Amino acid sequence: MSTRAPAIGIDFGTSNSAAAWVGNDGLAQALALEGSATAIPTAIFFNLEEHTTHFGREAIALYLAGVDGRLMRSLKSILGSSLMREPTEIGARQVSFEDIITLFLSELGTRARQQMGAAPGRVVLGRPIRFVDDDDARDAEAEASLRRAAENAGLGEVAFQYEPIAAAFDYERRVGRESLVLIVDIGGGTSDFTVVRLGPDRIARPDRADDVLATTGVHIGGTDYDQRLSLACAMPQLGLRHIGPQGREVPSRTFFDLATWHLINWLQTPKSIRQVQGLRSSYLDTRLHDRLMHVLEERQGHRIASEVEAAKIRSSVGGDAVAIDLSCAEPGLHAELSAADLARHLAAPLEGVVACALDCVRRAGIGAGALDAIYLTGGSSALRPFQQALRAAFPGVALVEGDLFGGVAAGLAYTAANATRRPAAQLA
Q: Which residue(s) pair with 10 in the sheet?
């Protein structure tokens, strides 16, 4: 491998992805992956009208504009699942999910090369503490699938680093004294935690293993919050929990799939649509069934998911009641989401996430009061109910918001640049 080949870090995320490399000044530089934007939605659209492939915001825009094709999001959620071993239909072709991830990573590599002037010779990919909870074999299988995808994408030598540890290495550049920090990385699919010692005198150490006191992770993230909000607010407008003429609820499987980003496409097959059409006799109010059929036949599932996600963010930022636009199901239709509703619907998963954070501190062998700071990264770490729950669990500890979408990529770039004598994965 040429010594001139640059090393890069790639944060392949459930909702968004980012990449960075270390410049001549020794500082990580985010790579613009879509126009001037350094974060790109992890989305692929296969345009069946023009037989072209599109990525990121462009992919989502074409889908929402009604172009005939297949949109795929939350690809990372499939790693470690049985779906990875099943082909999926893209037009008339059968394509594996691993090949689709390869395609996305290859595009990231191409866009990075255009800015760096050379193809990467080494890549450090971020990985969650757990791809799959409580199943070591499937967790290892998930990493192996991602490794093969990166290698097949031509990204050079491939290594891994835990995402919260990468975020710690980025935050360390802004720490003025030695500190004991809980790194909190809340992504689209997972929530990861690390207790680590950071400081300006530790940055240059080649081996940081002793500085990492504990790591924990749980398979709960932003897409799980979206699912719960969709089931609570949007799906009842299509028939979820509707009592039919026989006194029974409409079967709920369709609504759960429609509320889950990476399962929406499976409802758009002719077989699935016929099965949902057969549910009409389960409805007392057939207008609800009409809405559901319209969403499936017009492929509006991702639009509803996007509207729920956008409402979640607006409610969290503004603290006010917001409307979830469901006009794609029926003109003028909407659902309400208040700040109180947001906190109530997310209480159960947030409890699990905060419990994982407390467990990380316990495993580190310290009390919560010994922390100098809690460093937040990942888009979902900005949610107001989450930060409120975290403050309640760690009273008096300062919360520091980092680069929500670029911090992990920057830390991965530092890991890649320093990994000259041994694989970066061993640095964890």
A: 19, 125
